Amino acid sequence: MLILFWLGLLALLTLGFDSWQQHLFNPNASPQSARVGNVVEVALKGNRQGHYLVSGAINGRPVTFLIDTGATYVAIPDELQQELGLTPGRAQRVVTANGTATAYETKLNSVSIGDIKVQEVRAALVPNMPGRQVLLGMSVLKEIEFVHRADTLTLRQYQ
Predict the structure, then answer these.
(1) CATH number, domain at 137?
(2) Residues 151/76/98/31 CA torsion (nearest 10 deg)
């Protein structure tokens, strides 16, 4: 019985540590929306590296976004293409932080973070883009207001 107790305690500690690590990586796993009149607002906290990651959705399917004001479009790793049901369009050359690459145009029906939702968004499928994070670029950010103060990035959509 004592062995089962220690095994159970070890399992709980492992789960707790994993949850804590995920929170440090993405402190915005469950973004909360606030409505004031015709404004929807979502406040994001930076992670330990100072990046703003947030859970959201593309076409209703869950993804993790990395806010990137230097990205022209929403940039999606190629490995998410099938999961999100996206069709690659015309090939284009893009300049990234890692150099020049080929990306494929695509159109997203919707991108959402909390209650903020942007329709008909231009995006790019990027082969060889590492990881599963989607770069949330200016094709979405130009449709909303964003303000950075201290360690908080506030997104606002006027409806």
Answers:
(1) 2.40.70.10
(2) 10
* 78 DSSP assignment: G
pTM of the model: 0.83
3-state class percentages of the chain: helix first, strand second, coil last, to nearest 5: 20, 50, 30
**Inside any domain, residue 122:** yes
pLDDT of residue 131: 84
Q: Is 2 helix (H, G, I), strand (E, B) or coil?
A: helix
Spatial contact of 152 and 43, defined as CB atoms under 8 Å apart = yes
Predicted local distance difference test score (pLDDT) of residue 9: 52
Domain count, the chain: 1
Query: How far is the C-alpha of 79 from the C-alpha of 132, rounded, in Å?
Result: 8
- pLDDT at residue 19 tops 60: no
The DSSP bridge partners found for residue 107 are 122
